[in-house]
Backbone:
């Protein structure tokens, strides 16, 4: 864990934070910051995972959602990197 955090810190140019772009879809849009209506930048500590980002946004840990990280499906334990593109989607119903 410490090695991964050190590597993230090195990759982020020595900063202790990274910035990611977050896009929330469907009912998850209720977690958008006031006045924001689309993709937005979030800053999280270097070495953060998707789960850490979800907590920072205020999304409950048991929320049913799909995570896209840089265009690929990702788990909550996936590490984030500076300039990552994160998409959060709720399950869809219908037919």
Residues:
């Amino acid at each position: 864990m410490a090695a991964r955090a050190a590597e993230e810190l090195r990759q982020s140019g020595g900063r202790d934070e990274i910035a990611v772009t977050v896009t929330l879809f469907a009912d998850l849009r209720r977690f958008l910051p006031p006045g924001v209506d689309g993709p937005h930048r979030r800053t999280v500590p270097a070495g953060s995972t998707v789960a850490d980002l979800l907590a920072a946004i205020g999304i409950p840990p048991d929320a049913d959602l799909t995570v896209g990280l840089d265009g690929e499906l990702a788990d909550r334990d996936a590490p984030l990197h500076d300039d990552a593109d994160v998409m959060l989607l709720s399950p869809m119903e219908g037919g």
Notes: Residues 2-11 form the longest helix (10 residues).
